[in-house]
Amino acid sequence: MGIPMAEQLIKAGYAVTIYNRSKGKEASLKEMGASIAETPKALIATTDVVIIMVSDDAAVDQIFNDKNGLFGAGISGKMIINMSTVSPAISKNMAELCKEKGGQYLDAPVSGSVKQAETGQLVIMVGGDEAAFNEVKPILEKMGKMAMYLGDTGAGNVAKLAINSLLALYTQGLAETVLFASQQGIKTEDLLNLLNNGAIANTFTKIKGDAIIADNYKAAFALKHIVKDLNLAKDIGLESPLAQTALSTFKAATAKFGEEDLIAVIKHIK
Q: For residue range 152-168, what is the model confidence (pLDDT) as tens digits?
């Protein structure tokens, strides 16, 4: 996700410096004109706004607190925007630490996958200081079609976990529906054609339906990450029957299909 998001900023004319924990992934951005920083500490020294897009709370903590992390340099006057899907708790912790050090922190997770990142069509939900949000909104709008302020620190994280909980329910529901129809003799192509032209048609069904038909489970959003997100939602109080069922299903599927796309849950259910 971070690569196409950075590409949108470069195309918009921003001077972009990149730090990536997986070094090989920096090449395409360097070719587009991005500068490369060897550490988060070196990165924040070169820019006023830092955008983070990583996988989980542990990665966020590492980026801030390692000896060569963001806190290894002075952050006074700096704006740090964490666009990762992480817990509200780590956002609140990092926001407080940033404030103590004279910097600002926004949680700004995104709704959308690689396709939306590549076309600048992400939906961005933001928590933190509203004045800080308004200051960086033009940057966010280069990466997404919508950037919405929701409230205090952690509000963006809560909204994202709610959305991804629905994503899990919908993914399992789609998988079960396709399998049920197939078991009753309905071709998957025909069922998806009906769904995509009916009252509940949506982009997700089209994309994941095409993946099922093509037997293509290359991860746009890895199944293991929906387990992480459902666990984070559970930690802040999501205990509904459907959510508990989805967590159980995806958790059981992780051992075999965790690195594949979340729609690979259809293979587990089957």
A: 999 999 999 999 999 99
Looking at the chain, the domain(s) classified CATH 3.40.50.720 span 2-151
According to CATH, where is 1.10.1040.10 located in the chain?
Answer: 158-269
For residue range 57-101, list pLDDT tens digits in order: 999 999 999 999 999 999 999 999 999 999 999 999 999 999 999
Catalytic residue status for 160:
yes
Task: Look over the chain and give the mean of its residue pLDDT values, rounded to a whole number.
Answer: 96
CB atoms < 10 A from the CB of 208, how many?
22
Please give the single-letter amino acid code of residue 72: G
Per-residue confidence (pLDDT) for residue 57, from 0 to 100? 97
CA distance 231 to 219: 20
Considering the domain 2-151 in this protein, what is its CATH number? 3.40.50.720
Tell which CATH architecture fits domain 158-269. Orthogonal Bundle (1.10)
d(CA 82, CA 44): 14
Count of Cβ atoms closer than 10 Å to residue 171 Cβ? 24
Residue 133 contacts residue 155 (beta carbons within 8 Å): no
Q: Which of 78, 160, 208, 228 is catalytic?
A: 160
